[in-house]
Amino acid sequence: MIILGVDPGSRATGYGLIDREGDEEKLVGSNTIRLGDADDHPPRLKRIYDVLVEVITTHDPDEFAIEMPVYGQNPQSMLKLGRAQAAAMMAALNHDLPVAQYTPKEVKKSVTGNGNASKKQVRFMIESILSASDTEFAHDTADALAIALCHGNRDAHEDRQSYTGWASFVEANPDRVSE
Amino acid sequence: MIILGVDPGSRATGYGLIDREGDEEKLVGSNTIRLGDADDHPPRLKRIYDVLVEVITTHDPDEFAIEMPVYGQNPQSMLKLGRAQAAAMMAALNHDLPVAQYTPKEVKKSVTGNGNASKKQVRFMIESILSASDTEFAHDTADALAIALCHGNRDAHEDRQSYTGWASFVEANPDRVSE
Predict the structure, then answer these.
(1) Rounded CA separation B130/B144 (Å)
(2) Parallel, antiparallel, or unpaired: how do β-strands B63-67 and B24-34 relate?
(3) Which of A11, A86, A92, B39 is 20 to 30 A from A50 (CA-CA)?
(4) Helices (H), B130-160
(5) Are strands B63-67 and A2-7 parallel, antiparallel or unpaired?
(6) Facing residues of B64 across strands?
(7) Which of A108, A154, A142 shows the shortest CA–CA distance to A15?
(8) Which of B93, B97, B102 is the mutation pick for testing A, counting most A CBs within 10 A?
(9) B45, A81: Cβ pair inside 8 Å?
(10) Which residues in chain A have Cβ-Cβ distances shorter than 8 Å to B81?
(11) Which residues are CB-contacts of A107 (< 8 A; sequence separation ≥ 6)?
């Protein structure tokens, strides 16, 4: 099962594809769509849509997941974010992909075992799960992969051992968390 | 020139098509897409998109205009509104229609001559301009038509006499403003 995770934003939209077979996840592809500040909003939305349509037609994912923000930002930011989200969702909906939404807390909890994990913790867990420790994911790309992993993991929290959380990761990788 | 105006919302999205030839505007069609409260958000966005795509392929408008809200609502409302806006914009952008955005004040000013006009004033002016006094437009439909008229009027404010504003409308139609 191939899952496309998207972390939408009107300045940068990350996406990540994982292939989940049984208890194994493999990285299929990921990137961040960078959207010029100078551009007007509609062309940015069109770009998000077009890139994701290309990703969908190329990799034919089975499922689509997106980050659903908590409501805390200012109204203008939320309007822009809602627009970016919808542009991404329309790419999925127009290709018959169901849209799943997760809060940042759900994503962090699923990937690290801790709903209040730091960005660094999330990134380390992603690199570990996807055996990609030699990859330097951009921030929004890492978030998108975390969303895809969270979605892949949604039915499996009970019976899986692979996501044992940050504590056990630290124990196993002391050299990677020295900051 | 056919103009499609849209007043997007996640519960109801109004749209209105006008045909503008010289100084004359004709009503081509209008309606409000009602979106069930019970429905999840993604299917509502898909419905907005699909209906507008059908409107666009049926009537082949030349231009597209949308209401750009002022930022005053709560963040959750703005996120939902942003999503509805983007679903509507994607329908236009995917059919090579440029997207113009107007604030409510610009729309009111353009249609009634007064940026602080009431909804009732806007509606009366629309009915008058479109010779549709026998039509009872739904609220969101009237707003969408006002946006289309505002867009059609954008280059013509200087040299047109047909939008002489609410004051002269009242003078000419005393029986219609008696409330």
Answers:
(1) 13
(2) unpaired
(3) B39
(4) 139-152
(5) unpaired
(6) B4, B99
(7) A142
(8) B93
(9) no
(10) 79, 82
(11) A67, A122, A143, A146, A147, A150
Tens of pLDDT along B140-159? Answer: 999 999 999 999 987 654 44
The distance of Cα B3 from the centroid of its chain, to the nearest Å, equals: 10
B54 Cβ under 8 Å from any chain A Cβ: no
Look up residue B105 and give its amino acid.
Answer: K
Q: How far apart are CA B61 and CA A153, in angstroms?
A: 45
For the entire predicted model, the pTM comes to: 0.85
Task: Give tens-digit pLDDT for A16-33.
Answer: 999 998 878 999 999 999
Contact call for residues B122 and B112 (beta carbons, < 8 A): yes
Q: How far is CA B82 from the centre of its chain?
A: 16
Count CA atoms within 13 Å of residue B155 on its CB side.
Answer: 5
Transcribe B95-119 into DSSP letters: TT--EEEE-HHHHHHHHHS-TT--H
Separation of CA A110 from chain center? 12
